[in-house]
Design goal:
The structure holds two protein chains of two kinds. Chain A is mainly α. Chain A has twelve helices and no strands. Chain A folds into two domains: 165 residues, no CATH class; 53 residues. The termini of chain A are far apart. Helix content of chain B is 79%, strand content 4%. Chain B is built from five helices and two strands, in the order ααββααα. A two-stranded antiparallel sheet of chain B has the order 1-2. The radius of gyration of chain B is 20 Å and the shape is extended. The two termini of chain B are 40 Å apart. The chains are: A mainly alpha, B mainly alpha. Chains A and B meet through α2, α3, α4, α5 and α6 of A and α1, α2, β2, α4 and α5 of B.
Chain lengths: 238, 108
Amino acid sequence: MIATFRKQLAAKRWLRGVSRAFPITLGYIPIGFAYGVLAQKAGLSAFNTLAMSIFVYAGSSQLIAVGLMAAQVAPISIILTTFIVNLRHMLMGSALAPFLNRWGKFELAAFAYELTDETFALHAMEFPKGPPGKAETLAVNLTAQVSWVVGSWLGILAGGLVTDVKPLALDYALPAMFIALLMMQIRDRVQVTVAIASGLLAVSFYLAGMTQWHVILATLLGASLGVVIEKWNKKSSS
Amino acid sequence: MEQKIIFLTILGMGAVTFLPRLLPVWVLSSRKLPPLVIAWLRFVPVAVLSAMLLPALLVQNGQLDFSSSNLFLWAAIPTFLTAWKTRSLFGSVIVGMLVVAVVRFWGG
């Protein structure tokens, strides 16, 4: 009895994780699809196209990499570029780490393997509400990656037949999700200032040609500004 | 490029992507962090989300675009309002996509 009850409970948590990842899958399938199409055009075999979605699993860097592969850029440069583009995940992992103190090393590794911009955004909203459930959290991550791999696979199947994902506005799924998650993250005036400052800094760095460092630099500066303002407010109020 | 070399490149990409994802959660999760670091980390989600989002909304084809043709920017307004009023992630995504789809449909 109890065993079946527990099983049902676990299944429920998994299902909740799967459904919470739904907005992500909405964005990942079409972008994964676009990646699959581009990888085919760049001359990657179907095996390698899927392998990248399974072993690298980082959207923007995968799109950059197939472009570089098509241009016959040396592997070491491709790996280095990937490293720089994905370095921003370090900041995301650091921000989530304080909530994961009850997780084992292996569980943390499984979690970190599927940490993307989008899963991070979801977790960053959810974790402060209470200790994150492992099953639900990992289900969110797994669902997201499965949808990414499925999208890539559909792109391979479609080959050169379809290249445009615009008609359904699927290319707006992830920007819209970021808008909503950012809005829900903001709780006070200092955070509004941080959001505006780091956003504008990122735009400036990007336009100045730092298209691989703009997110990291803007985040470092924006979060530091938040701490400074907070300290300053405390001093002036005491 | 030969498929075997591509595969090895992919494995290398995977390694350099996984390490920055793994190290902070491994190193920081089991440690008691100084209050200043905690305070700083609390600003990271807002900062990083905004840093990723704003260039996507404001920059089109390598330059700032505040024109009426920058659909991503203008569709952000109803999306933002929906998120603010309803607090629904899914609802906001649907509203944003609907606005973009409808404008594209009518605008050709």
